[in-house]
Amino acid sequence: MNELDLEETPRRLWPRLLPLAVALIIGGFLFAGLSLRPKEIPSVLIGKAVPEFNLPALPKRPKGLQSADLKGQVSLVNVFASWCVSCRVEHPLFMKLKARDLVPVHGLNYKDDGPAAMSWLARHGDPYDRVGQDLKGRVGIDWGVYGVPETFLINAEGRIVCKHIGPVMERDLEEKLLPAVKALRQGGVAKC
Amino acid sequence: MLMTLLRRLVLALCLMAPLAPAWSVAVDTPLDDPALEARARAIHKQLRCLVCQNQSIEDSNATLARDLRVLVRERITAGDSDDAAIRFIVDRYGDWVLLQPPVKGGTVLLWLGPLLFLLLAVISLVFWYRRRRGAPVVAANAPLSADEQARLKALLDDGDPK
């Protein structure tokens, strides 16, 4: 076999580099894919006015939540539930935020049981200004909620500026949400 | 032995049959009007579940999927057209919920991509054939030279086990 003389065909460079090029292109896509977060579906409500809604307060707690409440000042709306495990992760942060009195946080109690929500707030602290009780989750759907927790930043005109999906961590708050609040208050454009 | 085992198995399965409805997690109440229900079902199949992302809301057991199924049924009953009912959901969750993405500026590549690749394949095939036809044909059927004959004979003789 090895003695068979195959006629040497002139070899060009690019066909030999082709596999490398293909590997680099595919590798590039895969590398970019590493930092994608397919679980986070971008909200279509960014820049739009908050949906029209009017939710009752939790039992024995004053102040329900409705669309009109979200006009007039920059605020956060946190979607939470007593059955939501990762809500407990972010909750201490909202308690701290309340102590610092930087921005009002309203609660959207999503598909929860009233008394259960109240005892959850009694146990872990109540950082909210207003809390609306969304028993059936319909208002949640209007807000495009698909998982709890979610947190929305609302500007003074009552428009949704950004949406944070999943528990808010210290870094999200300090580097994303609070700078955005500051920018909005100064009349600037919030990036988040 | 095998038959009795089989018979027992069949009996066991038959006895379990009435339990089947209890196994499915989210049991929806279908609409009374079968035509409306069929429309609602068709819409459910087009909408992607946001929780278990590669299922339609028809297939998903997630509670949000169930809520959305109920919502679609309500919209249809309220007199929404299929498009209006779908738009209602898309207004809240975006094009992402459509299992079949619409043709738009951002999705053109997605839709035309396969065609583009096919075109690329055809073009490279054409080039390949052309080059092959242009290349000097290896004289496969040319008679062997005396030297080659001798080598062939040596190989054949050598390879013979007898």
What can you see in these coordinates?
- The complex is a heterodimer of chains A (192) and B (162).
- With 192 residues, chain A is α/β, with parallel strands linked by helices.
- Chain A is 36% helix and 16% strand.
- Chain A contains 5 helices and 7 strands.
- A 5-stranded mixed beta sheet of chain A has the order 5-4-3-6-7.
- In chain A, helix 2 (85-100) links the parallel strand 3 (75-80) and strand 4 (105-110).
- The model of chain A has no long low-confidence stretch (mean pLDDT 92).
- Among the domains of chain B are: 27-101, Cytochrome C biogenesis protein (Helicase, Ruva Protein, domain 3); 103-134.
- The chains are: A alpha/beta (192), B mainly alpha (162).
- Chain A binds chain B through residues 7, 9, 38-39, 41-45, 111, 136-138, 141-144, 146-147, and chain B through 50-51, 53, 63-64, 67-68, 71, 90-94, 96, 135, 138.
Brief characterization of the structure:
The complex is a heterodimer of chains A (192) and B (162). Chain A is of the alpha/beta class.
Topology summary:
The complex is a heterodimer of chains A (192) and B (162).
Chain A: H1 13-34, E1 54-55, E2 65-66, E3 75-80, H2 85-100, E4 105-110, H3 114-124, E5 131-134, H4 138-142, E6 150-154, E7 160-165, H5 170-185
Parallel strand pairs in A: 3-4, 4-5
Antiparallel strand pairs in A: 1-2, 3-6, 6-7
Chain B: H1 2-16, H2 20-23, H3 34-46, H4 63-77, H5 82-93, H6 108-134, H7 146-159
CATH superfamily of the domain at 27-101 in chain B: Cytochrome C biogenesis protein
Structural class of chain B: mainly alpha
Total number of helical segments of chain A? Answer: 5
CATH-derived architecture of the domain at 27-101 in chain B:
Orthogonal Bundle
**Overall pLDDT level of chain B:** 85
Principal-axes shape call of chain B: flat
Order of the strands making up the biggest sheet of chain A:
5-4-3-6-7
Report mean pLDDT of chain A, rounded to a whole number: 92
- Give the low-pLDDT segments of chain A: none
